[in-house]
Structures are given as C-alpha cells and as structure tokens.
TrEMBL record:
GO MF term (any one): phosphorelay sensor kinase activity
Keyword Magnesium (UniProt): no
Histidine kinase/HSP90-like ATPase domain boundaries: 310-409
Record field: transmembrane: 21-45, 51-70, 82-100, 132-150, 156-176
Record carries keyword Cytoplasm: no
Keywords: Kinase, Membrane, Transferase, Transmembrane, Transmembrane helix, Two-component regulatory system
CDD domains xref list: HATPase_UhpB-NarQ-NarX-like
This protein's name: Sensor histidine kinase
Length: 429
C-alpha cells in the first residue's frame, strides 16, 4: 500500500513537470523556423550570387532538424555532444551567408539559418540553465560579428535579444527544477507520514496490546513468567518509541531532473543502498533510535540531523560505548537519557544516567590500569572525526557525557584531550 501511494505521487510529480512542455515547444519551434528560413531563401533566390551554397546548407539543415527531433524531446537525450554539433550547424550557417553572395546578409538582413539559430541557443538553456545559455549566445554573437565584418546596431540588437531571452528561459528552468524537487520531497514526506500513521494504528491495535498483556500476566504469575513479562514491557516501550519517532529513511531527490527522474525513490534499483557509499550526509537519528528502551529515553529533533557518513558512524559508536559503561558500572536498573541537539555548526549528543557517578580520580586510575573504554571508545573516536568529548560526574548523582561533532570536517586532527570528571551539578532529569 505504501509503495503504491509513493508510486502514484512520483508519477504525479513527473506529470507536473514544467520543463517537459518547454522541450516539446522547442521541437515545434525548430521545425517552424527551419521552414521560415527556407521561405526567406526562396523569396530572394534570384539575388543570391551562389545559390548552390545556400541550397547545400538548407539540405543539411532540413536533414539535421528532422533527424534530431528525438534529441530535443527531453533532457535525457539532449547530450552535450548533440548540443555542440547543433550549435556548430547554426554558426556554420551564419558564416556561410556572405559566401552565398546575399548582400543583405552583410548589410543587415537575415542570415541563412535566420531565427533557427535561437532554437540552438534555447536547447542549451533548457539543458544547462542560464550559464549554458549565456555561453551559447556569446558564440552566436561572435559569429554574427565575424560574418558582417563590424559591429552594427542591428547586430547588437539581435544578439542581445537572443542572449537575454535564452538566459531568462534558462533561469526559469533552474527555478522550476528546484521547485519540482521541493514539491517531490514534500509529497514523499506526506506519503511516508500517512503510511507511518497507518502502521502505528495497526501496531497499536495488535502488537502493542499483546506485549502489554504479556507484561501484566507475567508480572502477576511471577517466576520465569515475570522475566518474560519484563522483556515484553521493554520491547513495548522500544516499539512505541520507534513508531512515535517515525525514523523512516528519506529518499533523495535526484539532482538531474533533466534525465526524466524528478525523484530517486527508495525502491529505485539504481539508487545506492548505503549513503556512506556516495559520501552523502547521513541522518544520525536512525543510528541512535535503536538504543531506546525501557531504561533508555531517546530525545531527538523533528528534522534530520545530517553528518558525514564516517562522522555519524563514529558518533553512534561512541554513544553505544557510553551506554555500555552505564550498564556495566551503573547497574542494570540505571536509567539513561540520550539527547540529540542539532546546532548551526555542530551536533551535540548528551548521554546521562542516574547511577552512582564516578569517584574523583577513578577515570585516571582506570587508564593507568589499561582500561581504556572511555579513552579510546569515546574520546578516541571523537578525536578522529574532529570532535570533543566531555565527561561530567558527581558521585552519587550520575554521569553525563557530552559529545560534540562539528558539521564541517576539521582541517587537522585535534590534540588528544583527557576526560577528567568535573564536579558540576548535572542537568535536572
């Protein structure tokens, strides 16, 4: 059901594309302007000194225009090689105009391809945006100046007209692509939210109620059944946290909307499975959500917390090491809290517990004894990714580990920093 909803929304986004109608309009424009250029030549045939030059060019122009209609049907087929060849045909036509012996081509009249050349420039605009359009317009302008031998008011007027129009269209295409990506992302989030809500209702009506019943019956029966009930209670809390958090991986919007895929969905076989394979930022929240349970409370922002893949993995491993220390030293009954804060320049993850705390000097003693869990599993991991780790502990009042990772990679590794317990009052739990 979820896949069907996502598919429907992706198809709707593709149909709403602003870019595709522009490509279809360009196809019609190229054919019409080709016929217009041929009509201009036919109406002034007798004034050409070497009409065979013009006829040869128009034969090439007709064959090229009709044969390349599929290339201008969409951005996927409109390659850089085709755009270069298309612009070459336009430039050659401009330069051949005086060779054909038509005086008006030099004194201010239209060239052999006439306004067909604007279609070549518009193809560059649709494919690459306003920067590509500006480059193609400059080449057309240079060709016009060369074939006329000097600057003139009409030449400058025509070149500026084509340049401004193509740049404007290229800019509109870029804005339209950005809008389509935003819309596609919003529709995906909406579809994922609806599916998550449906799953949450189904889980609440079935799995969660069964787990709650097992917990109650087990506690009432005692013995081994009590242990089973306790485990069922922990799984109930973990499942509720996962459903409430809704940490579903987000699909990535394709940057190349010109290739006909407005959205690269999760079920796209061409999409990479692991964000780490492409170096794209990774959401930290799903990596930490699995720690939530009966004795671990997980609090996170409502929006993705993005970090470089390596930094996200190391930070998640450091959090796991901190929780292992809680279970090992604070006891199985200790409660822990994980708080994720997404700051403008850094991501801060705080792990607190309500255990007995660390006696003063105990951490340094453990390092001296070769027990480097904090020194290596936590501090070492953070140092390798340019982050810092700070431990705050008050005997009898719990321990707090604050892990800070900058969003931008550090230019060099930070110097090792020894974690020393500070006598500070922990945050109110």
């Amino acid at each position: 059901m979820g896949n069907s909803a996502n598919t429907v929304r992706r198809e709707r986004v593709v149909r709403m594309s602003v870019e595709q109608p522009l490509w279809r309009a360009l196809m019609g424009y190229r054919v019409l302007t080709m016929l217009y250029a041929i009509g201009l030549f036919a109406s002034a045939y007798e004034v050409y000194e070497r009409p065979w030059v013009a006829i040869g060019y128009f034969v090439v122009l007709v064959v090229w225009t009709l044969a390349t209609l599929p290339q201008v049907s969409g951005a996927r087929r409109c390659t850089k090689r085709f755009l270069t060849a298309d612009l070459t045909v336009a430039v050659v036509g401009i330069l051949l105009s005086p060779v054909a012996g038509h005086d008006r081509a030099v004194t201010g009249g239209s060239t052999l391809p006439s306004i067909w050349t604007a279609g070549a420039v518009l193809a560059w605009a649709l494919k690459g945006g306003w920067r590509w359009a500006a480059s193609a317009s400059v080449l057309i302008g240079v060709a016009n100046v060369i074939q006329r031998g000097a600057f003139s008011r009409s030449t400058i007027h025509n070149v500026l007209l084509v340049c401004i129009a193509s740049i404007a269209i290229g800019y509109v295409v870029e804005v339209a692509r950005a809008s389509e990506r935003t819309l596609a992302r919003a529709l995906e989030i909406e579809a994922a939210t609806r599916e998550r809500e449906r799953l949450a209702r189904d889980i609440h009506d079935s799995v969660l109620q069964v787990l709650a019943m097992v917990q109650r019956r087990g506690s009432a029966l005692g013995g081994e059944a009590a242990e089973l009930g306790r485990l069922a209670g922990e799984q109930e809390i973990a499942l509720r946290t996962l459903v409430a958090g809704g940490l579903t991986p987000t699909s990535r919007v394709s940057e190349d909307a010109a290739q006909g895929a407005v959205v690269r969905a999760l079920d796209d076989p061409a999409a990479p499975e692991d964000p780490a394979d492409t170096g794209e930022p990774r959401d930290l929240r799903p990596l930490l959500a699995g720690h939530a349970g009966a004795r671990v409370t997980f609090s996170e922002p409502g929006t993705p917390v993005l970090l470089a893949p390596a930094a996200a993995r190391e930070l998640a491993a450091a959090v796991s090491a901190a929780l292992d220390n809680v279970r090992r030293h604070a006891g199985e009954d200790a409660h822990a809290w994980i708080l994720v804060e997404d700051e403008p320049d850094a991501v801060v993850v705080t792990v607190r517990d309500d255990g007995p705390g660390i006696p003063e000097g105990r951490l340094a003693q453990a390092e001296g004894e070769g027990r480097l869990g904090v020194a290596q599993s936590i501090r070492g991991r953070l140092r390798d990714i340019g982050g810092t780790a700070e431990l705050i502990s008050v005997p009898g009042q719990g321990t707090e580990v604050e892990l800070t990772v900058p969003k931008q990679p550090a230019p060099k590794l930070l110097a090792p920093k020894t974690l020393v317990p500070k006598k500070l009052v922990p945050k109110k739990k």
